[in-house]
Design brief:
Layout lengths: L7 H8 L4 H12 L10 H9 L13 H11 L3 H4 L5 H20 L3 H21 L5 H17 L3 H24 L3 H18 L2 H17 L3 H14 L5 H17 L3 H14 L16 H15 L4 H11 L5 H18 L2 H18 L2 H11 L1
Helix pairs in contact: 1-3, 6-8, 7-9, 8-9, 9-10, 9-11, 10-11, 11-12, 11-13, 12-13, 13-14, 13-15, 14-15, 15-16, 15-17, 16-17, 17-18, 17-19, 18-19
Length: 378
Amino acid sequence: MGESARTVLEQMIRDRRLTPDEFCEEAERYARDRSDVVPISTRHLQRLMAGRRADGRLLGPVRPATRRLLEGMLGVPIDALMASPATDESSAADEIELRARLAGARGVDAQAVDLFQQKLDLTRVMDRKVGAPALLGELRHQIEHMDEMLRYSSQAGVRSALARVLVDARTLAGWQSLDQGLTVDAWRHYDEAKAAAREAGSTALLSYATAAQAVVLIDIGETHSAVELAAHALRAADECPALLRSWLNAAYGDACAADRREVESLRAFDRAARAMPAAVDPAETPYLVFASIHLERWRGSALARLGHRDASTTLVDALERLDPTFARAETALRVDLVQVLRAAGARDEMTVHAQRATMLSLQIGSVRQRNRLGLLVG
């Protein structure tokens, strides 16, 4: 890459320290959930970077779908991308691009942040009813939009408020990705959520995102590391809402159960019960849907992991109290019951719950719960 760039497109790809193959991989991810763009092949990208065909002739007009792809990814009009990267012209284009992005970010005010949160709250309600497949693509778009606005916002108050919503969105996307069996994506979303929590200056949100990330470690069998991460999240939450304190203790208890630390797990769930507030202000923890019924279900799941004698009773009680709109929660609860009943040799009861869990996991598209069922009943 010692030669001068032939087009602004080539220069911008070089500036990002990407090879043509790597840029095409990013383009494929960008196009995955968009209907108005298509991925680009390495060969075609190389022609566009050169600005000429292989025989030296000038290129014709760029196809509309390719134009939308490149303009969307790079934020520069296609005519400018295909121009020669003269230093003064490139500097002017960079300045125009930055001014445009700053102007766009200035359009995000407190009201816009509230609308982002409202849309996210609706996504969360739909998620528990219909599952991740129908929603994850749209949530990714919302995250990309908020990321862009946060990157170019210069208003401290707006940045902080937007970062708080972004933590909420990223952790929800992490959970949805995990439910789809996309563990790498889930880990990345939680990591980005922690970065947003730092931007927001919130130790409570940072603890929440950190403890949520521990679930990824549990799912891949890294249970000791999960305990350490959940414990760190709990210690770091010096001052936080009571509901979050309860949730963090339950998350630690769940990690301990996965690591076969029964005494620590049960103590953590006891602390979670004591911390559970009698009344909850949704505005205080909009990112957290958690109440005594969810704590009971979580405790039952931990008891099932531990093979504890009280697991079946706790899970059945939770199932009877669970809001029927929580389809994913019901699926996980019934899979936990399958685990307990299988160990107890109660085949008929196990079959009833396995059939219902199978139907629900297919209904909401939960790869995670289908995999759990597969390990338990084949």
